[in-house]
Design goal:
This protein is an alpha+beta fold. The chain is built from eight helices and 14 strands. Helix 2 packs across helix 3, helix 5 runs antiparallel to helix 6 and helix 7 packs antiparallel against helix 8. The structure holds ligand DP6.
Length: 318
C-alpha cells in the first residue's frame, strides 16, 4: 500500500482548452499557486486477488471509470497487470466547492506509480498527472508552478517557480457550495469549438504567461495580481461567448468581485480570480489578510477561508 498527498492549486494564468484531448495538451501554458489547506490523500494497493479495480472517495464507493483509464497508463508503464484498490479522502472544508481534480490526479499519479514499483521524477509525475486532469500537472509542485503547454506528451509538464520574496495568501469566498452546474471538461471543449473569442483568448493568455514570469521574477505583486484578474475575466468572457451561452457567475460572485475592487481602490493589495464555479478567490499578501477579511465579513460571514502557499505532492506511507 502506498499513501500519497497532493494539494489543490488555483491558476493565476488559466488553462482553458485542449489542443489534444486524448493526451491533454493545452492551447496555452498556465501558472498556478498550490494551496496549503486543501488536499487529497490517496492510498493505492495493486492486489492480484482483485478481479476489478475498486475505488472509494470519502468513504463512498465511486465508479471505477474515474480511476481505471489512469491506472491502465500506470500498469502499461510498469508492465503490471494486477487490479488496484484506490481509497481517496478529500481534505477540503465541507461543501466548500473546492474539491478538485488537480489534487485528486496528482495524488493518484504519485501513489499509483510508486505502488506499481515505478520511481518517477517530479517531471515524469507531472506528465503522468496531466493525463488524468490538466491542472493536476501543476499540483505535483508546491508554491507557484508553470505548466508548459509543450507540443507533445514529453514536452507538456509543469515545474516550480521559486518566489522566496513573495508572501502570498489566498482568501476563498464561498459564494455557493452547490455542486457544479456544468463540468469544466465539457464546457472547455464547447468554448474551444464555438466561442468567437477563443482564438483571441489563446493569443492573449499565452502572452500573459510571459508577463507573469517577469512579474514573479521581479516579485512585483501588483503586476502579478493585475495579470491574475485579467486572465480569469478573459477566460470567463470566452466561456460566456460560447454557444449555448453560459456563465458560472452568480449575483454574489459580482458582489465579492466588487468588494475586491473597492479594497484595491482603498490601497489594499487584493485581486480576484475564479474558476469553473461561482466561488471567488482573492489573491493577496499575508500582511493584508486581516483587511481583506474585514472587508468581506459583512456580506460573507462564515463563508471565508484563508490559506497560504502549500507544499509539493508527497508520499506519506509506503
Ligand atoms: C478553470 O484541469 O479540471 O480550473 O484537464 O479537463 O481535467 P481537465 O480540466 P481541469 O480544468 C481546470 C480549469 C480551470 C483553470 C485552471 O486550473 O487552469
Amino acid at each position: 500500500m502506498t499513501l500519497a498527498r497532493a494539494h489543490t492549486n488555483i491558476a493565476l494564468i488559466k488553462y482553458w482548452g485542449k489542443r489534444d484531448a486524448a493526451l491533454i495538451l493545452p492551447y496555452t501554458s498556465s501558472i498556478s499557486l498550490t494551496l496549503a489547506d486543501f488536499y487529497t490523500d490517496t492510498a493505492v494497493t495493486f492486489d492480484p486477488a482483485l478481479d476489478a479495480d475498486a475505488f472509494t472517495l470519502d468513504g463512498t464507493v465511486r465508479p471505477t471509470t474515474m480511476v481505471t483509464p489512469f491506472l491502465d497508463l500506470v500498469r502499461a508503464r510498469a508492465g503490471r497487470h494486477a487490479f488496484a484498490r484506490v481509497t481517496s479522502v478529500n481534505h477540503v472544508p465541507t461543501a466548500a466547492g473546492l474539491a478538485s481534480s488537480a489534487s485528486a490526479y496528482a495524488a493518484l499519479a504519485l501513489a499509483a506509480s510508486r505502488a506499481a514499483g515505478l520511481r518517477l521524477s517530479p517531471r515524469e509525475l507531472s506528465q503522468l498527472a496531466r493525463r488524468g486532469s490538466g491542472s493536476a500537472s501543476r499540483s505535483i509542485f508546491g508554491g507557484l508552478a508553470i505548466w508548459h503547454r509543450g507540443t507533445d506528451d514529453a514536452t507538456s509538464f509543469a515545474e516550480p517557480l521559486p518566489a522566496p520574496n513573495l508572501k502570498l495568501a489566498m482568501v476563498v469566498v464561498l459564494v455557493s457550495a452547490a455542486a457544479k452546474t456544468r463540468s469544466s471538461r465539457s464546457l472547455m471543449a464547447n468554448t474551444v469549438a464555438t466561442s468567437p473569442y477563443y482564438p483571441a483568448w489563446v493569443a492573449h493568455n499565452q502572452a500573459a504567461v510571459e508577463e507573469m514570469l517577469a512579474a514573479i521574477d521581479a516579485a512585483d505583486f501588483a503586476a502579478i495580481g493585475h495579470l491574475t484578474e485579467q486572465s480569469a475575466m478573459q477566460m470567463h468572457a470566452a466561456i460566456m461567448a460560447g454557444d449555448p451561452a453560459f456563465t458560472y457567475f452568480e449575483p454574489e460572485t459580482l458582489v465579492a468581485w466588487q468588494a475586491v475592487q473597492a479594497l484595491r481602490e482603498a490601497g489594499v493589495p487584493a485581486y480576484a480570480t475564479m474558476d469553473a464555479g461561482p466561488n471567488v478567490k482573492v489573491l493577496t499578501v499575508q500582511d493584508a489578510v486581516p483587511q481583506v477579511l474585514a472587508a468581506l465579513e459583512p456580506q460573507f460571514a462564515g463563508r471565508l477561508l484563508t490559506t497560504t502557499p502549500g507544499p509539493a505532492a508527497t508520499i506519506l506511507e509506503d
